[in-house]
Amino acid sequence: ESVKTVLTSPENRILIKRMLIKCADISNPCRPREQCIEWAGRISEEYFAQTDEEKRQGLPVVMPVFDRNTCSIPKSQISFIDYFITDMFDAWDAFADLPNLMQHLDNNFKYWKGLDERKLRSLRPPPE
Prior knowledge:
Helix 4 runs antiparallel to helix 5. The longest helix is centred in the middle third of the chain and has 24 residues. The protein has one domain. The chain is mainly alpha-helical. The chain contains five helices and no strands.
């Protein structure tokens, strides 16, 4: 009922559409784990390449945390989730009730925390 009330206003509909687009854009931590890991690797590689190129050209490094020699991917994912994802998706979940998405988010956060607690900097633990 409250969703119907919110959707009656054209301004609210626009706001909801904008929020949906933003959530879709940054939703990687809300995917199933294997997809999340794959895309975290792709995104990190893109940022590493940017940092490499900035250094090569003697430009200021925009994202120094993404130096491929020192970066901890788990730490970067934890920070991303803490800073951008959690509050936004909590709000989206309160509006749209997305238990599967929120469970993936929780599972992925725990995965990255586990790697970080082991002082690992990579996407995956080493093979046993």
